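MODEL INPUT / OUTPUT PAIR
PAIR INDEX: 1
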Amino acid sequence: MMKMKKTIRLKAIRMTLIAMALFTTSEFACAQQNQSFTVRIKGMRCDDCAHKVMDKLTKINGVDDIQFNLERRTATISYNPEVTCEDSIKKPLIGTRYNPTSYSASDIIMRGYGQHMEIVTEADAQKAIRALQGLTGIDSLAPHLDKHYLFIRYDANRTDKATIRRALIDSGFTPTNYYSSSKIKFALYQLPAEQATSATEENVLTINGVDDATINIKKQTLAITYFIDQIGTTTEKLEKDLQVLGLTFQRIP
């Protein structure tokens, strides 16, 4: 009798282990069932736009994750197909500013922007052009010596601003965003070697009024694009804020 009870208990344990294994496998399989798709959202131009799209889509039961690419203006949406579908996910956006359209990796998505940097002579301009000509996705380059910037037209499906900026930095430039507005100013500073770090760059970006900042570690230079008047920012205030950060610098004309 004891032997029979022991056998029954062993069988029960084996059945429990098998059931647990099946449940775990089933749970894993469900996790693997998520699907994803990518759409272009041409009206999505900034972080605020992306947040608005996210607010609409995360309310949909079954949407698991959303990844945005603002340069391409795309959203890649992961979802559970047992709960929702592509059409249901797109529905809240259709007819709005954020109307979704099809996306393909073969699409040509042209973008253009300016980078203010050390372009003073024709030789500087040619150096900047050479730095980018070999990059996949570059369409055209237009240097403007009078305002010291390079206008770059590129395919955002084949390259991006970070890659372009890295190529310019590696070629000896310190590029920052260029704007034609009279309320935007640019400054270039020489830093001591120990302060020419990515941490310094991140700290400068926290200063009120600063739109963009780049450090060229090799050249020990800091370039800043900043607003004036809008929030009381002036060049003098900017430099005081840099001193508050503990920076020692010399302005380069």
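PAIR INDEX: 2
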Amino acid sequence: MARLILILICLSSMAHAGPWPRPPGTGHLSFSTTYFDAKTYADPLSFNTLYLDYGLTERITLGLDLGQNDLGEYKAIAFAKTPLMAGLLGDRLRISAELGAGMVINREALRAGLHLGRGGRVWREKTGWIAWENRAIFTTGHRPRITSDLTLGLTASPRTKLIVQLQSGVTPGEPAYARLAPSLIWQRKPGHHLEFGVGAGLHDAERYNIKLGIWRDF
């Protein structure tokens, strides 16, 4: 049990922590810039995001999601997450619901999400996790935009984590997109991490991208 608790604490320190809640009184702040090969001259060449979440109680995590998305749309969303159906598979399978509200390109927006995840020992003393995050974004006068991200992660060493993410979604009036985005997370010192990532479009997405990020746990 102590080993499982330690694993879950490590998982909860990941950015966009999927279904794992933040421990009460702790938080996470991340900032990233992604540079990519635009599909057309009208598309942006980079976008920035800032993400903050904080464990208010054992069951409620509050957060802010600010910046731009991969379409260059500005967003500002405040959200809350809470776990659902605790105790599945001996508490190894986590499910959480998310509800948020804010603005997307000057339009009022609501965001609803359902996230699933499981973590544990992968090989010898190395731990890993899998998370599936699904969100629907509703804006005034428009059909919802759906995103679905599947993440595989591995704690390769005490200071290094490896992540591979399959990002996909559907925007009203546009074809569905998909991209593969691996990242390396390196702990510079306790509570401080650097992220180095690359991505490749699989369907109706940019050919490649490069991501640089900073994480801070508090």
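PAIR 2 NOTE: Residues 1-14 have pLDDT under 50 and may be disordered.
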